[in-house]
Amino acid sequence: MICAVHAVIGAALGKAAKHPGKAFVAGVASHLIGDLTPHKDLPAKVETPLLAVTVLLILLRFGWKSPEFWGAFGGFAPDFENAAWMWGITKPEDCRFPSHIGNGKYHAPALRTAAPQLLLVVLCLYYLLRPAKK
Fold it and tell me: Is the whole-model pTM more than 0.90?
């Protein structure tokens, strides 16, 4: 799944969790579910800046102590091990996150379009940015 999508889903779960620690755990759990769902991945040269902008916007909007930030961080943190082997720091067989082990053996099949992920991002952003009920 696109890393920025993992982050936005994690941020939305963080808002629901209302606690940074619970938000982080929910974000990590959502990463596994996202990876097990059929999706489109993008090249690292596209994903990296997209993730950077997404995380920056979450930080600016909610702050680093917020459950939204920690949910987002939990959402994309498992992909650090993917980045490590892509950069030659580790080997693919060193991955330990369940959807990353076996060189993607348990990863969902690829889709040709990112449209389902875009729809999910729109729904999460609506939840994140809607005014609080009084």
Answer: yes
